[in-house]
Design a protein that fits this description.
By secondary structure, the chain is mainly alpha-helical. The chain is built from 13 helices and no strands. The chain is globular. One of its GO terms (cellular component) is plasma membrane.
Length: 301
Amino acid sequence: MSKVDVGGILRRAAAADLFFAGLSTAMVMGQVIIASWRWMAVTRALDGRVPFGLSFRLTYIGQFFNLILPSTVGGDAVRIWMIWKSGMTPMAAGASVLIDRLTAVLGLIVTVVVTQPFLPDMPQSGLLGLTVWALAVAAVSGTVLAMSVDKLIGGHRNHRIFSALAELSRDVRAVLLSPRHALGSIGCGILGQINLSYSLFFLALSLGIPLKPIECLVLWPLVVLVLLLPVSISGWGMREGAMVVALGLVGIDADSALLLSLLTGLIGTVAALPGGIIWLLTDVSRSDTTQTAEALSSPDT
């Protein structure tokens, strides 16, 4: 912040086109719907059968708690606790949220790999491309390891922690080895990155910053990779630094990149605040998932 014209940034923000800024905000709020679909796809693979209404409420509540805790740790913990209260077993609740987070990361990695050929031509492009492929290999290796833990544990499953890890490994396979559930969950992860990339494009458009849609689609997922590190509150600071570096690759000056990043953070904050109201009004009970399971078992459903 000390290296930019703060007064100029504020004046540019005040002159933003409200239509495109509003469109960007609507897309950020719509991200909760996509995340809810992704979690539903995971729980269906695990026979959790969480209805959309409950998934949407708990996902929105999780977004609210992500505002005040590092990365997505706080929101995920709250989701686990509340879905457990609704009737899931503790193991199933934890597995559903952890695998949901895994599919979101896999969707992000797929997006980064697919868009990698469109990276800007620059001296660092070789190193950046190598880093992208290294991340992809690491993601695939980690996923294969997660699916194989129960086989690696072997005869140690009598211990509680090993038994839990073995069950989690089987749940990961249930999601990722089912084409329907894998496509649904990872597909929603990819759709979420596309949605946020276009949200960034419309916000840039509102500020007169010359960013192209393909540039947003290529660069925004790289910024999100940095935000996965749980070293800042709701990404503040990390996002700004990453955005300045990423947008600098396509010739966007630091002032414009910082303005875009700050407004992205503010829009994300405003969009997540209703989750706090939903949290205050939500009283999940064990009947939530029980009634849903009964409805899904009916031949008429």
